[in-house]
Structure formats: C-alpha cells, structure tokens
Amino acid sequence: MGNSYECLCKPFKIGSLTLKNRFCMAPIGGNQHYSAQGGFSENAIQYLVERAKGGFGLIFTGAIVSDYEVDPYSGIGPSPLQTPDAFKFSATELNERAGAYGAKIFAQITMGLGRNYPELPAPSAVPVFGHAGMLSPVLTNEQIKKKINAVVKTAKLAKESGFSGVEVHAIHWGYLLDQFAMSFMNHRNDEYGGSLENRLRAAKEILEGIKQVCGKEYPVSMRLGLKTFIKGFGKASLTGEEEVGRTLEEGIHIAKLLEGYGYDSLSVDAGVYDSFYYACPPMYMPKGYTIALAEKAKAAVHIPILGGGRMNDPDLAEAAIRDGKVDAIVMGRAALADPNYPNKVITGQSDKIRPCLACNQACITRLQQGLQPGCAVNPAAMRESRHGLKPSLQTKEVVVVGGGIAGMEAARTAAKRGHHVTLFEKQKTLGGNLIPGGSHKFKTEVRDLNAWYQRELAELPVTIKLGTKIDTEQLEKLPADVMIFAVGAEPIIPEISGIEQNIVIGCIDALNHPEKIGDKVVIVGGGLVGCEMALTYAEKGHDVTVVEALDSILSAGIPVPVPNRQMIFDLFEHHHIKVLNGHKIVKIKDHGIVLAADGSEMDIQADSVVIAVGFRPRKSIASELKQSRAVVYEIGDGRQVGTIMKAIWDGYEIANNI
C-alpha cells in the first residue's frame, strides 16, 4: 500500500471505539431493508456486508424507526420494538459478518420525520413539505416523551444486537429533531420550545436515556445539519443569504451544546427538504461543498467531526483530513456506486472506482417514490443477494451493436460472466450520447463514467470494432448465440418554417461544437437537456432565453429528481435566464424567431437557435434479421428513450441473464 492517502487510511476513535480507517458509509435505506418478520432482510444484510467487505471502517444503517404508537405511519419501515426477537436475530448476523472485515456498524435511530411528510406530527403546526395548504399535526408533551423513550429502548435493543454504537436521527434534513431545533419551525411555549437549549431538550434527553441504559462508554453520534440554506417554507437560498432556518453560527453553537451534553461525535452536512440540493446535492453542486462548514465545527469542538456532502474525491478527502478540517468522511451515494471504494483507494486503484453521477435517479428519488432504491450506475446496489453478477453456466457468443452506455454495460457484464463478446460501434470512439451529455462543466462524472467503462472493457476479453457500421447481411453471417442492439436515440427536429436557417442548430451538434453558439441564444425546449444547456451558456456569459410550449420548464418527460429540479430553478434565477412558458415557435428567421402565445405573436432576436425538444429511438435493423439463429434483444434508448439509469439497468439485466 502506498502512502498517498495515509490520512484516510489511519485509524481514529469515537469515544473509546477504534475505527480502522476514515471511510464512513452514510445511512441510506428504508422499508426495503426489512423482512416480513420485522428484522433485516437477507438482501439488506448482504448490501451492508458488501460495503464492509469493500473497506468501509464505519457503516451507518438507514434510519431505524423507534416509535410505533404516536406516528400514524413510519414511512421507513417497522419499529424493532414491535418484533425485537426478529430484529436481534438478523442484526446479530449482520454485525457478526461485517465484523469479520473489521467494520463497525452504528444503528441510526430516528425519533420521526415530522413535517417532511403528510399527517406526521411535528413540534408545531407548520406547512408540510411539498403539500400546499396542508399543516402538520402538533405533538403533545406526552407524545414527545413517548417518542424519546422509544428511541432509548431501540438503542438498548441495538446494543444487545451487536451494534457498535448508535446515531441519533437527526438534527438534519429537516427531520423531526431538526424541526424541534429550529425556531422557524418550533413555536412551542413549553419546555421543548423557546430558547435554543429548550429546542434541543429532546436531543439531550435522548442521549441521557441511551447512556443510562447502554452505559456511558457506548458511542452515540448525532447527524447535524450546520446550515439550512432556506429563505422560507419551500424556498431554498442558493447563496445562503436571507437565512430563516439555521445559520452557520447557530449550527456551531448547537455543535458545542451537543458536545457538552455528551455526544461522542457529529456527522455534519447541510440543507433540509426545502433546500434539498444542499442536503442531497446534484451534479451542479461542487464536490466537498460542506468542508468549509465542517471546518468551523471542528474548530469549535473536541469530538470527531465526520464530514458528508459529495466527499467522493480521494484527493479532496485526504486534504480535508490532513489539514484538520474533518476527522473522517461520510459517503452515501458513492458507496452505492462502488462498494469497494475504500479498498480501491487504499490499494492505489482509485482509477477503478465506478463514479457516482450525483444524478439522484435511483437512490433518493426511488426511495421517496416508495420503490426499491438503488444506484443508476450500479444495478446490483441494494439488491446484491438477488441481483448480483452470476457466472455463466454455458459460454455463449454475444454480439453487441452500439457502443453507448447501454451497449458498454451489456458487453462488460456479459464478458465478466464468461461469455465471448464482440461489440460494434459505427463511430470511432465509445460513449454514444455520453460524449455530448458529458460536455457540460458540471458533468465531470459523466465523462469519468465513460472513461471507466472504456478501461473496464479494455481489461476484459471483449473484441471492440470501432468505426464499423454493420448491416443485416453481415450480422446474419456471425456465429452469434445472442445479439443485443443498443443503437441509442437521436434528437427530434420539428417541422418549423425556417428550420433550415443557418442560426438553427440541434442540441447534440451544439453540445459537440460550442464554438458554433452565438452571444444571444434561444433554446427551444425546456426539458432537462435544454435547461442544462441554458445553464452552461449562462455560466459562459451568453444571453439565454428558454422557450417552452407547456406551462413550466421541466414539466414533461421523465420526472427530474427533486433536488436537481430545485437547483435548476434557483440557478436560472441566479443567472437571470429568461423563460417564456406557454409559447410555441411559429417561424425561424435569419436573425431570430417568431413565437405565438395567447393568440398573439412576438419576435425574439437570436444569434443561435438551439433545438432541444426531445429524442426518439434510432431505427434499428433488429427486426430485419431473418436468417440468424441468435436470440435478439433491444435495450436502452434504442428501445425506449430514458435515463442513464434505465440504459445501464437494461444492459445489466439482459447480459446478466444470458
């Protein structure tokens, strides 16, 4: 092992507990972690054990429900107090197996979710996130005490089940304890409201109870959002100004108080649901954006500060620890993308880490939708036991047509399973629409993913034929058992008067050739592609107008994850990007366009008109195959236009079951 990441590899302590390194896995998960009997499911155990095997020194479970009497529903699974034997049985197995790899696991235990979800009680009657006109029910004093007692009882059960410590969920992301801590959301006039100390009383009483039943040496951590970045309910503050929630100064004060109460460590980040792009940052947010906040907390306390928030850059993380800004790093989505992240860093193979895109498609979005969460770039994530890579029982000849993301995943998976794979790509390089899609400054991870696939394929027995456009006759002569067509999608060019004008350019051409774009840009189409292009042009100083036929941008097609959507709207406002909703393009002239809305027309001057109204599958020759004995599949955008997640999951599903 080299010493380039010696700080990340160095052990540290939380209380009297020694952790083998500074890699911590953040809590991710909910209902899907539990079996019908109430304990951890076999799949959940394997999911966490894979991260222990991959080198994480400390792993936090997803939030575990404690109360089952006060809240009308949990939203994230059953309480272990309802089925203590099943919980203890499964949790003991989890901790024993993870312990074999030297990993420690903290059970993250929640007091509740509060106004983040409908009908769940909160400290005060405040607006429910995402539900206009709805107010949360108010907790009574007796109900608060019941909830505190439930957390304490669950912590005792966690210790008996082999967990090395617990993390209290959470004064972050606007969950129940966070709502208690904020005067903006806590309007109570009893002992749980008013002064900051009163607003933290529940957090203090939880700690005191846990230490009483588990012992003073049993480690207890708190997840703490140091700043909320909100201007009001449902309104984020991109710059952090006009803060009405928690300022950094108050966050530091809270950190000091929590240390004084006896908490053994703080896992810090930022944001709440109303500023979700700070809580669960998309790719538009720079990596390590919370380090400056965490540094302030570390300077103020003597207990370990674990820093989260896009910390998936080994060099950045190493520097943050070396410079005394954090004691350890916390990664959630990056741990989904590559469970072996720590081991790859430790063994000098950082280039082999499968990159997290910060796309929020499969993780937080599917979790909030009540679907099985996972990872866009790692189809097996969170379902390893039933969807892991399977060795082939019989080697087959596999032909893949198309070297975009779906084709590369299909080729990679089939080859890793032992099949003989030949991949045909008509262009001179692999990547397909990853290349233009990754051209944005904020899409570094997309470029990294393309490079990762190409390195993976180069090390596998895959025959790659670039610059080769193969036809039906050639395919039918190949001795293939399976043919996978991943031909991708192409931009739609609508029939508009003047579409042939020189100022018109398609979105893919525009992404590939930024030098063609003039100063004054009109983007036709307010979907995700058009909006991201608008951001790029605005950041470069162009005068940008987005024209959308519907009532709002980002309102059609595949739903955009909440954090991404929030941030795009706020970035549009920040960069003064003009948006014309409800306008249809009538005609394109040599120096602009004509729009129609509400029965009237208007002219817009433009140097460039970028067409970004959507994509359609490319024509495939799969249906023309008559003489081939091969089983034929069509995947990715060539089958149905979708996301990177859908393309990768398609490729993996087919190739893993050949």
UniProtKB/TrEMBL annotation:
Keywords on record: Flavoprotein, FMN, Iron, Iron-sulfur, Metal-binding, Oxidoreductase
GO MF annotation list: FMN binding; iron-sulfur cluster binding; metal ion binding; oxidoreductase activity
Top-level division of the source organism's lineage: Bacteria
Cofactor(s) the protein needs: [4Fe-4S] cluster; FMN
Pfam name, any one: Pyr_redox_2
Cell membrane in keyword set: no
Span of domain NADH:flavin oxidoreductase/NADH oxidase N-terminal: 8-349
Record bears the keyword Protease: no
Annotated ranges, domain FAD/NAD(P)-binding: 397-624
Family indicated by similarity: In the N-terminal section; belongs to the NADH:flavin oxidoreductase/NADH oxidase family.
Name this polypeptide is given: 2-enoate reductase
Organism: Propionispira arboris
